[in-house]
């Protein structure tokens, strides 16, 4: 891959298509999720090696609790074991792991692992892996507004202090804006993912299911990102120095 390519600071991925990948191969949905999990294990390390500073992944939405009990239980077990594996690999690489989402109604065993990993990796400096579990972007905004209102009520914050920086610092994690948002499996939806942080992200929708979204596929995403003309609402080929 060309070394002169600009590497996005914050990449977000909607891990979609495990079920369809499994179906196409005559496997169970659980096998599809396991393949997705294995893929993310290698892919996340590769993405940080490329120089990405923050990687966010949508592992489980608030709405995913509507799936069958069997599938939800499988995923919760996978998270319990899987987060441990990710943290073992990424801790060695000095990557901090954080989680975004509501705690209720996640099972205790998952919460315990999440808390331990957050604490174990809290001083790591090379990058941030943000795993979104029981996450919904609209709920994140509701929760931030509640926290801010509570601070105003307790005289810890004034109305005039509320700006984009203050709002961002009340999100589940105080992360930089997303530069590149990828959704695998050929679906063109945001599905309530990082609504605030994705404001000026470039979107990329590869036509492969997540278990087949390999490191080579990620390289293609970076090449495509480099073809985009990011203007942030400004003028094309803006040469202004400020
Ligand atoms: C959506 O695709 C995927 C999920 C709800 C689960 C994603 C989880 C993983 C990739 C495992 C990650 C593991 C850890 C430890 C973070 P889908 O299964 O709904 O696919 P479909 O739309 O084809 O049915």
Description of the structure:
The protein is of the alpha/beta class and 242 residues long. It has a single domain, classed as Undecaprenyl pyrophosphate synthetase (3-Layer(aba) Sandwich), CATH 3.40.1180. The protein contains seven helices and six strands; from the N terminus they run βααβαβαβααββα. It has a six-stranded parallel beta sheet with strand order 3-4-2-1-5-6, with helices on both faces. Helix 4 links the parallel strand 3 and strand 4. The C terminus is likely disordered. Bound molecules: farnesyl diphosphate. The site of farnesyl diphosphate has 20 residues, from helix 1, helix 2, strand 2 and helix 3.
Unreliably modeled segments: 238-242
**Fraction of helical residues:** 40-55%
**Radius of gyration, CA atoms, in whole angstroms:** 18 Å
Helix-and-strand structural type:
alpha/beta
Proportion of residues in β-strands? 5-15%
The largest sheet has its strands arranged as 3-4-2-1-5-6
CATH fold descriptor: Undecaprenyl pyrophosphate synthetase
- Mind telling me which CATH architecture this is? 3-Layer(aba) Sandwich
Shape: globular
């Amino acid at each position: 891959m060309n070394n002169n390519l600009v590497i996005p600071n914050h990449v977000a991925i909607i891990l979609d298509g495990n079920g369809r990948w499994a179906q196409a191969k005559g496997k169970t949905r659980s096998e599809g999720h396991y393949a997705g999990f294995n893929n993310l294990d290698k892919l996340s390390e590769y993405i940080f090696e490329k120089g990405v500073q923050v990687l966010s992944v949508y592992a489980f939405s608030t709405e995913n609790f509507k799936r069958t009990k069997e599938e939800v239980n499988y995923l919760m077990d996978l998270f319990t074991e899987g987060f441990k594996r990710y943290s073992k690999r990424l801790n060695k690489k000095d990557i901090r792991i954080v989680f975004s989402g509501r705690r209720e109604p996640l099972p205790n065993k998952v919460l315990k692992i999440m808390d331990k990993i957050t604490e174990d990796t809290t001083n790591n400096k090379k990058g941030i892996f943000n795993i979104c579990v029981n996450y919904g972007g609209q709920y994140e905004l509701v929760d931030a507004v509640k926290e801010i209102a509570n601070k105003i009520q307790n005289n810890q914050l004034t109305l005039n202090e509320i700006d984009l920086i203050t709002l961002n610092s009340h999100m589940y994690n105080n992360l930089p804006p997303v530069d590149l948002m990828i959704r695998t499996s050929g679906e063109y939806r945001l599905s309530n993912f990082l609504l605030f942080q994705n404001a000026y992200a470039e979107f990329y929708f590869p036509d492969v299911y997540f278990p087949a979204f390999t490191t080579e596929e990620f390289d293609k995403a970076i090449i495509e990102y480099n073809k985009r003309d990011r203007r942030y609402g400004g003028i094309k080929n803006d040469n202004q120095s400020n």
